Amino acid sequence: MIEKILIKDFTYELPAERIALHALANRDQSRLLVYRNGNIEHDRFTNLTNFLPSNSTLFFNDTKVIPARLIFQKETGARIELFLLNPVAPTTLVQLAMETKGMVQWQCAIGNLKRWPDWLILTMNLAGVTLNAILIDREQRIVEFSWHPESKTFAEVITRVGSIPLPPYLNRKVEPSDSNSYQTVYSTHEGAVAAPTAGLHFTKTILEQLKTNGHATQFLTLHVSAGTFQPVKVENATDHIMHREQVVITKENLESMLSAKTVVAVGTTSLRTLESLYWYGVKLMEHPNSEFSITQHDAYTLPAHHTKEEALTQVLKKLKKDSMNHLMGETAIYIMPGYAFRMTDVLITNFHQPASTLLLLIAAFVGPDWKMIYQQALEHGYRFLSYGDSSLLFGKKE
């Protein structure tokens, strides 16, 4: 186990004016910082393929951001704002909850909770849909939703009445353009409450360029949770409680990981999914009937001598045994300095908040040079955070 990491060593001064409040009109015109072997180059994202190793395999997170903010208004005029966190019933699986008809229960963050009595049903009528909400567990913030017409799925309902949940640090109201710009062009599976922002730079043109240049593309799913914005508030970062997120992996994903010459993770969410699969394979070697559930401590307590091939082969055997083509699970993997990467060679990612778990992940991936990278980005006028510019990082050599 890693015993101590002082979070004060993983912060930097981020001027407010460097936080990108809006996306660029042309998403692939963002700037690109390339870091490799201690050297930095500056370019544009449109030239990404110029810097990728030949025959790379890129892994994208195809989760789709849901309109997770629901605003109800009482007859008194008081506004109750609900933010969907995770489903509770009739299923805890995000993708299945989005397909549910008639009734669902979600744990929510609730604004103005004290103004919402337990017995009061909140109702909104919008775009031909009536959505009702009642608080069934005040302590756990569990809300039961029902709607009319009942033939519609929960995804269809909130698409009509909800709004996109922008990151809190943008500190602005949602605008019509956000419904498109805060979504990757390849988003498919509804369930995220935050975008996998490294993917926001990709266009269909760049995806075609990748194929033309001999690179392979794979799409896996991690439904990004609100925990991604949770800052590290403890002095010793190892004491931070890591959030859990649901993942979906296909048999094709696994086979591609085994055959890939160079694995490029598009975003920290894809990277966390890839690394989690290694540890799940290790778990299966120890306990063949293990469920796909990775804790924040597994990467530091499980046996670490197995190869990537051994671990992934175990996961493929599990799929074959269960006659499944895909695997659903969850991960709370916590990647910080001292972590040894098993799956990922290259990372495409934005520039992250100071004192965050994402910055710890970057520091683990490139080593102490993270300070140089971020200083260069600041000095060269890069835009930061979700709507900001991009970087292509080659992992440090052990």
Question: How would you describe this structure to a colleague?
Answer:
- The structure is a single chain.
- With 398 residues, this protein is an alpha/beta fold.
- The protein folds into two domains: 273 residues, QueA-like (3-Layer(aba) Sandwich); 94 residues, Beta Barrel (Thrombin, subunit H), CATH 2.40.10.
- 23% of the residues lie in helices and 27% in strands.
- Helix 5 packs antiparallel against helix 8 and helix 6 crosses helix 8.
- The protein is globular, with a radius of gyration of 21 Å.
- The model has no long low-confidence stretch (mean pLDDT 95).
- Which superfamily, in CATH terms, is the homologous superfamily of the largest domain? QueA-like
Average pLDDT over all residues: 95
Uncertain stretches: none
Cα-based radius of gyration, to the nearest Å: 21 Å
User: Per DSSP, what share of the residues sits in E-state strands of 2 or more residues?
Assistant: 25-35%
Kindly state the percentage of residues in helix. 10-25%
CATH class term of the largest domain: Alpha Beta
Sequence of secondary-structure elements: EEEEEEHEEEEHHEHEEHEHEHHEEHHE
**How many angstroms does the end-to-end distance come to?**
19 Å
